Give the backbone structure.
Amino acid sequence: MAFVKPFAVALLAVCAATSAGHAQNYPSRNITAIIPFAAGNANDITARIVFEQLSKQLGQPIVIEGRPGAGGTIGVGQAARAAPDGHTILFHSATFSASYVTHKTLPYDTLNDFIAVAPVGISPSVLVAAPSKGYKTAADLIAAAKAKPGELNFASAGIGAASHLAAEKFIAAAGIKAQHIPFKGPVEALTEVMAGRIDFYFLPIAAAMPQITQGTVTVLAVSSDKRAPQLPNIPTTAEIGLPAAAYAFWNGTFVPAKTPREIVDRLHAEHAKVVALPEVKERLAKMGIEPLVMSQPEFDKYFRADVADTEKLAKTAGIQKQ
C-alpha cells in the first residue's frame, strides 16, 4: 500500500495543473450565449448590453443564440447539454424559477444541471390600472376588490409569466380575490388594461413608463422593497403595508453544472466588472434594471431560494403544472 500516498499526491498535482490550465486558456474561442427567448425580448436586450462589454473583457466574441420556444425551456435544455467548458453560457431570469412550477416535465434538472454564475440586475414591476377605473392608490383597488370578492380581474402575459406571479403575490398579501385573465403576451394585456376591460396589471417598469408618461394608465405601486428611481413618488408594496407582495424580476448568467470552478470564478469576476461600469449602469437603467451585486455562492443561494418561493406561491395560487 506504500504506493497509495505518492499516487494520490501525483493525482492532486495533475488535477491542479489541469484546473490552472482551464483558467489560463479560457476562453480559447467564441463563446455561445443562449438566450431562451426571441430577439427583442427584454431579456435578450439586457443580455446584449452585458455581453457586448463582457466580450471585450474576455478577448473573445460572444455569439448570441436565441432559442425561444416552450416558455424558454428549449433553450435551457440545449444549454444543459452543452460541454461544461465555459464556452456555452445561459442568460436567464426569474422565468427560470417559473418554469419549474409550470411544467410537468422539463428537458433539464433545474437545480442540478446548472451553476448560477453571476447576477446582472433586478427590475421591479409596477401595478397599473386604467384611469377610467378611478383608483388613485393601491388601497382604492384593494377596497374595491374586497367590496366585490372575485369580481375584479387582472391581466398577465401568460400563466407563470412575471406579470402573473407578481399579481398572485399581491393578491395573497392583500387578502383579496380576483380573476386571472392570461393573454398571449404583454402587448395584448396592456391594450385591454388601457381600454378598461381589465382591472389591474403588473408589468415591468420600463415597459410601463411610456403609458405612465402619456397618462394612459395610472400607476398605483411598485413591487419592490425600495422605490424605483424612475418613479420616486410612487410607494412600494412594502410601504402600503404589503411587504410580502414584493416581486422582483432578476436575470443572470448560468453554465452547465460540471464547469470547472476556475472558469466559474473568472466569469463571475468579469460580470461584476461589467455591471459596475457607469455606461453599462446607464444602459440598464433605461431598461428599468438595477445592477444586482452578489458573490457566486450568494447568487446560487438566491436562485435556489427563488425557485422554492415560486413553488410555494404556485401552491398558494393554485397554479397547475401543464
